[in-house]
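Field notebook, page 327. I keep forgetting to write these up properly, so this time I am using the form the group agreed on. The chain and the ligand, adenosine-5'-triphosphate, are recorded exactly as supplied. Prediction of the bound pose follows.
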Amino acid sequence: MTNKLNNIGVLTSGGDSPGMNAAIRAVVRTGTYHNLGVYGIMRGYAGMIENDIKKMDNRDVANIIQRGGTILKTARSKEFLEYTGREKAYNNLKKLGIDGLVIIGGDGSFNGAQQFSNDFDIPCIGLPGTIDKDIAGSDTTIGFDTAVNTAVQAIDKIRDTMDAHDRLFIVEVMGRDAGYIALHSGIATGAENILIPETETDMEDMICSLTEKERRKKLVNLVVVAEGGVLGGAYKVAEIIKDRIPTADIRVCVLGHIQRGGAPTCQDRLIASHMGYYAVESLLIGRKNVMVGVVNNKIYYTPLDKAVKEKQRIGQEWMKIVKILAS
Ligand code: ATP
């Protein structure tokens, strides 16, 4: 494979996640190391269509590795869903001589990248930037570790007040279609029940165990719910439980967007740096339309369309462990 690359573009797209800045930094600095021109594309595909693109050098990415959010900003673009929008974007890239792209985002952004590359034969490399960890081909995603640790810290604080009042707390964490934040934060904080989108909840079983715990005055009862849990969000779950256990003193807390922000953890900075470096190296050796992931601590490449279609699966044994450990 030959190196015909002169200039590359980098963008962040879809929902932001902590660690995206570390990935941008790695792409820019690896690119300049190889004497490539590196362009930052603002607001994802929207900026590509609107020609909101600027040349970047190493100094532009100084002092950002520790910052959440994304200096390139992010957006969703309806126009990019249409061929005419993508054509405009391609013409802007062509004018600047950009012949390779690094897309940091979730599966929707990879869909866009695959479509764009099919249309105009431009190599695209995806980096999984999402707090949800719901992408096949990588054991983790940029932002998941930070988001889940934020959730754990918040739930630990809630636990203190729960304990003081003998309350049942229902905590809602992010995850419309994926339960990883709920599962990991729930296990790490000793939740009695964890409700996620991927698994049916045995309501009778949950009510039974909570009733039993009420009876033996178990002091702290915590239920962690993903926002897309099969029964609905935390308020809906609280309603159902209150209906069945009227004596329970229930409180609800929705953690919301604090899970997206804040300084990325060491792990997120590391994987973002690693993946960003390999994204540029991949373009240089002629790889195209793959996502750079990490599997068993090794860099692993997955075709973008596979990373999109095959979601990770949550192992059922985890749910069994949750039940045993919460007794
Ligand atoms: P998150 O996981 O946070 O939702 P995401 O990358 O999945 O992030 P989406 O909003 O699904 O976010 O997608 C980001 C953008 O990708 C869309 O706004 C759209 O511009 C583009 N996109 C998605 N699917 C396609 C497609 N089939 N064709 C062209 N562009 C697409």
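OBSERVATIONS:
- Residues 116 and 291 are 15 Å apart (CA to CA).
- The longest strand covers residues 98-105.
FOLLOW-UP: compare against the apo run.
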